[in-house]
Write a structure and sequence with these properties.
31% of the residues lie in helices and 25% in strands. The protein is α/β, with parallel strands linked by helices.
């Protein structure tokens, strides 16, 4: 359905991980090249596109709830609904009936045809959608995808079935995008992939094409001139090599923050999850990371109530959390995803028990996070200012700690020094240090 120019307003409903948010930035670029204007108010939009996430049932339920409301809006006014993102084959039929069209994000260049628009000439020539210039949501922080898809096939995870097998982006493309961002004054670059540390690419040096892995890529980005931070998400313990740990320690622009999902503290459950490591291996990794990287902060992901998880097995996870003393943990109650290997297992832990286990781990986390944050009291830290609200500024440290302090709005997007005076489990407060 083609709109008149004055009707061309679009709204993006984005769910899920940072990769989906990054994809939405490229989607926004295509729509704005077609003359659409973005609106955050879905009631003003003539076009709503959902960037979906089949990783959790709650996200699918949110889309279904919204789609029902949008169908009512369609009865009153001209409205087109589009669907893309991570959609499991078994979720697609129940979603598609609410939408006018569906396209895979890797086929983003075909979007104009769904809208009855002429093709965008320079998009027709691209090999992959990562070559589309994003409309970055920030003018000082940027997500840069380095790969898409996953080969790990964790038994609970939808990603290999929604994004496909892992594909690494050409190194020259990544370095070019980062260089352009740094030239424009960006202060924080976050490298993205379902498993960034299994990145494998190639690069030309001295007339030869040579292989390049994730530690090599980090070093190349670290060599780019400029004052900026490098972050990356997400790592898999089986690919957290000694080479990578040393690279993080030796590259000053790479932040001292590692997100390393453990998922469970019990070896039998890890095996059922197809996680390819043991609790003992994970703990040794944490020990090496803390030996090599000074003042590092470590976060993790944990699933409670995985099929067959006994009380004793849950207690093993709780024990691991107490031993490792994470700075942050993203704790999720298991929900079966259709088509995954774990969906064939009986979901035999009750919702009430999952909720209880989540609460217990959250209580452990609050203690360890507070203990770690107390180490910042009285110290001066560097903060990238992200938000200004009611006379206060909010930002994060290199170790990804949220910080609140008083300051002027003109400091947005800048690095500042803050002396920490107060802390809670999940945030720090302080005052600007004198320049």
């Amino acid at each position: 359905m083609k709109f008149h120019q004055k009707e061309k307003k679009y709204h993006l409903f984005v769910l899920g991980c940072q990769m989906n948010r990054s994809d939405a930035e490229r989607l926004a670029y295509v729509l704005e090249r077609l003359g659409y204007q973005r609106t955050e108010n879905e009631n003003e939009a003539n076009l709503i596109i959902v960037v979906a996430c089949s990783v959790r049932q709650s996200a699918i339920d949110r889309i279904l709830g919204k789609a029902g409301n949008w169908q009512k809006l369609k009865e009153k006014r001209k409205l087109v609904l589009g669907l893309t993102g991570c959609v499991l084959p078994k979720d697609k039929p129940k979603l598609e009936k609410y939408f006018d069209f569906y396209f895979e994000i890797k086929d983003l260049k075909t979007l104009p045809s769904f809208l009855g628009e002429k093709p965008i000439f320079n998009l027709e020539k691209i090999d992959n959608y990562f070559q589309i210039t994003p409309n970055y949501n920030s003018n000082f922080q940027a997500y840069v995808p380095i790969s898409t898809g996953c080969d790990n096939f964790c038994s609970y995870c939808a990603v290999p079935y929604t994004r496909g097998r892992e594909i690494s982006r050409p190194a020259e493309e990544i370095l070019c995008e980062v260089q352009q961002l740094v030239n424009r004054g960006y202060k924080e670059i976050t490298l993205l992939g379902q498993n960034v540390n299994s990145y494998k690419g190639q690069i030309k040096e001295n007339g030869k094409t040579i292989p390049i892995d994730f530690p090599d890529l980090l070093r190349k980005i670290n060599e780019i001139e400029g004052n900026f931070w490098i972050r990356f998400l997400t790592s898999h313990p089986k690919d957290m090599s000694e080479k990578l740990i040393k690279t993080i320690a030796e590259c000053p622009k790479v932040c001292e923050y590692i997100h390393l999902p453990v998922q469970s503290g019990d070896n039998e459950i890890l095996k059922k999850m197809n996680r390819s490591y043991t609790v003992e291996h994970y703990k040794k990794l944490i020990e090496r990371i803390r030996q090599e990287i000074k003042n590092v902060a470590i976060s993790t992901d944990i699933i409670v109530g995985f099929p067959t998880e006994s009380t004793e097995q849950f207690e093993n996870t709780k024990k691991l959390m107490e031993e490792v003393q994470f700075d942050m943990a993203y704790i999720a109650q298991y929900s079966p995803r259709p088509g995954t290997a774990a969906a064939h297992l009986k979901d035999d832990v009750s919702k009430a028990e999952k909720k209880r286990r989540e609460k217990e781990l959250t209580e452990v986390l609050e203690k360890t996070a507070l203990f770690n944050n107390q180490k910042y009291l009285g110290k001066e830290v560097e903060v990238l200012v992200e938000i200004s609200k009611k006379g206060f500024l909010y930002g994060r440290t290199r170790t990804f700690k949220p910080v609140k302090f008083k300051g002027e709005k003109n400091l947005l997007g800048q690095f500042v020094k803050v002396k920490i005076l107060k802390c809670s489990a999940f945030s720090l407060e302080g005052e600007l240090s004198q320049p």
